[in-house]
């Protein structure tokens, strides 16, 4: 260890826990004694750190050897980060031609704490176009992308979103958990979602799911524009185009279904 200022006890514990992860990441595996020697601390300190990390899945014990290695939680977090990076890169040259074809705004969004967050955006050539921003988030229950993302959740992850008060933004916003659940059932059945004047008056969007190599829904690809232009009779065609584009992105993420 290099010499440095000693942080307060609680921060020092976090710092040492992170060093444990770095050691296992560097060496591949290690026992309590090995890690203690590397950190320059007592074995009991490492035992406590490893116990907490193991309980959260950050490390796992190699049972037949009494050593530890990085756990699946680290892989999952790394995968989530890479997935978002890959989404932006892999979807851009699909979203841009689609935006030009339909003349509307195309977004790719992911779910974060109950909100749909844009990670990619392409604007069509229409005279009146939406101007949103990458990184902007919107409440999931009031958007087509959000509905797709919620519909893709397993029940135990969806339930928390159905037991809270749903905020109303317009007279068309779904604020009933029962109605939202029925809406999500419909999204799963037909493979796409729509939101007409639900987030704001005069805004309509359709969205379709993007899946990764495991088949999980990791993003939603949406087409959005002014409601007067995205009339109800136009939505089926736009939804088919959104589905096709979302499937193209899914293939690039390794989905073969």
From TrEMBL:
PROSITE patterns: HTH_ICLR (PS51077), ICLR_ED (PS51078)
Entry keyword Transcription: yes
Native source species: Williamsia serinedens
IclR-ED domain span: 73-255
Name this polypeptide is given: Transcriptional regulator, IclR family
PANTHER family, per the entry: HELIX-TURN-HELIX TRANSCRIPTIONAL REGULATOR, ICLR FAMILY, HTH-TYPE TRANSCRIPTIONAL REGULATOR RV1719
Keyword Membrane: no
Species lineage: Bacteria, Bacillati, Actinomycetota, Actinomycetes, Mycobacteriales
Record's keyword terms, sorted: DNA-binding, Transcription, Transcription regulation
Pfam family, one: IclR_C
Sequence ranges assigned to domain HTH iclR-type in this UniProt record: 11-72
């Amino acid at each position: 260890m290099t010499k440095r200022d000693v942080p307060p006890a609680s921060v020092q514990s976090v710092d040492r826990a992170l060093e444990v992860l770095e050691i296992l990441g560097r060496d591949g595996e290690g026992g309590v004694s090995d890690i203690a020697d590397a950190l320059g601390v007592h074995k009991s300190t490492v035992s406590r750190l490893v116990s907490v990390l193991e309980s959260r899945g950050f490390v796992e014990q190699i049972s037949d050897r009494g050593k530890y290695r990085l756990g699946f939680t680290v892989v999952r977090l790394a995968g989530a980060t890479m997935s978002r990076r890959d989404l932006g890169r892999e979807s851009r040259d699909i979203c841009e031609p689609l935006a030009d074809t339909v003349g509307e705004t195309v977004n790719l969004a992911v779910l974060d704490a109950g909100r749909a967050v844009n990670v990619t955006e392409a604007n069509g050539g229409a005279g009146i176009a939406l101007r949103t921003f990458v990184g902007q988030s919107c409440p999931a229950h009031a958007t087509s992308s959000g509905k797709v993302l919620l519909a893709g959740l397993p029940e135990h992850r969806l339930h928390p979103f159905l037991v809270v008060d749903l905020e109303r933004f317009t007279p068309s916003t779904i604020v009933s958990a029962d109605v939202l659940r029925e809406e999500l059932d419909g999204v799963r059945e037909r493979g796409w979602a729509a939101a007409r004047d639900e987030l704001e008056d005069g805004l309509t969007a359709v969205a379709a799911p993007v899946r990764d190599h495991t088949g999980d829904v990791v993003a939603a690809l949406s087409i959005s524009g002014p409601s007067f232009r995205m009339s109800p009779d136009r939505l089926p065609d736009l939804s088919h185009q959104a589905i096709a584009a979302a499937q193209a992105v899914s293939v690039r993420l390794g989905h073969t279904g």
